[in-house]
Amino acid sequence: MEEYIGSTLTKLKTKQYSELTIVIGNESCDLDSAVSCLVFANFLYWQHNEMKCKVCTKEYRDGSMEYKDEIFLPILNVDRNDFPLKTEVAFLFREKGINVGDLVYRDDYDLPQLLKSTKSKVVLVDHHVLANKDKFLAEYVTEIIDHRPIDKSEWTYKPDTRTTIETVGSCCTLVAQRIKDLSSLMAKDVQYFNAYPVCSEMLHATIILDTVNFSKEVNKGTPHDEEMILFLENLLKPTDCKAEREKQLNTLLAARTDVSQLSAAQLLRKDVKIVGNVLVPSFPILVEEFLNRPEALKAVSEALTQTNCDVALLLGMDLSEGLKRDIAVFSSSNPQKAVLLSKFLEDYNSPSLGLSPHQLSTAPECRYYRQRNLSASRKQYMPALHRFRAVL
Fold first, then answer.
1. Interatomic CA distance for residues 88 and 92, integer angstroms
2. Needs which cofactor (predicted)?
3. Which end of the chain is more exposed for a tag (fewer CB within 10 A), N or C?
């Protein structure tokens, strides 16, 4: 992995490449998005080198002729200074010996200019609905791997775009399956996974976290997730699979929920998406706890202004004593829209979110709800928000 990252960055900086493929995850840059991005870009690099015609490149190898190869660049969809907010991502990468300082972040390059500078392709992982700031990527997209319900309301991709879209617990499940399938087509079966065991380990850990180790209460794990976990465990051969799963879950949960040193403003940036003019931060703590922090609503108002949004949908989750979820809707500039969004989410039934209204004395300006449908994560809220935008 170190050799792959180093050689890719060197070629990128010196512009010694003939074609560029960017792999990029969604704007929340959570563990699923970050691991999917890094592992799939690494696989494309491996696949390219396995298939590259040795005869065609022979005349370049003595150094007498300049040879420019393709590069496969993972870009973490977060600004470099905000990466430390992704506590579980930073933890896992460090644990696996990946130097996070050597990775490429969203603000490291002018992406429109980078894509225009040479023949370029883009692979989207862990999302297929582009944020407004990413709309320019659409014309370059050649492949999509995502685990969200398909949404074609803003589908502007080319007809021949290769898609792997399936509702499973983790995008890493689909990445592992795609790598497995492509390797088999090359008659190389599990060679990639064996060549890069650190990637197998990261895929495994992420699927465990995303499915909460196949918790029946959370109900996010699917048979496909289980199939890929068993496939990876057959390669990794842990001494005790059950114990290893529990260890990974507990370690990553501790890393993700360690937000004691983060301010309210930092928590809002830790895991955030934007749908139209709706800011949708997700917390590893309950919204009620977030709103108890000093100047929490002031931070929300400032975040709304900074992102040109007019309403915030705050999503909270706590796993310390069984799963709990809650939400709040808030707007300082457009309270009527907050009321409309709240009512829309109360009545939404695809699926029902099971929202129970409560009053918070610490934040009476918010419309606050406890969520009875514990399996509904932000993934289920996104289609609701797109529909809300359509009917508003």
1. 6
2. Mn(2+)
3. C
Tally the C-alpha atoms within 13 A of residue 223's C-alpha that lie toward its C-beta: 0
Task: Please state the φ and ψ torsions of residue 68, each to the nearest 5 degrees.
Answer: -115, 125
Cα 293 from Cα 300, distance rounded (Å): 12
Which amino acid type is present at position 268?
L
Query: Are the CB atoms for 52 and 82 separated by under 8 Å?
Result: no
**Which residue, chain included where needed, has tokens 């990553």?**
252
Could you report the per-residue pLDDT of 328-350, keeping only the tens digit for each? Answer: 999 999 999 999 999 999 999 99
What DSSP assignment string belongs to 26-53?
-TT--HHHHHHHHHHHHHHHHHHHHHS-
> Amino acid identity of 280?
V
pTM score, two decimals?
0.84
Scan for tokens 């590069």, then name that residue. Answer: 71
Q: What domains can be seen in the chain, in order of their start residue? A: 2-254 (3.90.1640.10), 264-391 (3.10.310.20)
How deeply is 53 buried, as exposed, middle or buried, from its count of CB atoms within 10 A (0-12, 13-18, 19+)? exposed
> Alpha-carbon distance 208 to 177, whole Å?
16
CB contact at 8 A, 21 and 72: yes
Q: Is 318 helix (H, G, I), strand (E, B) or coil?
A: strand
Helix/strand/coil for 66: coil
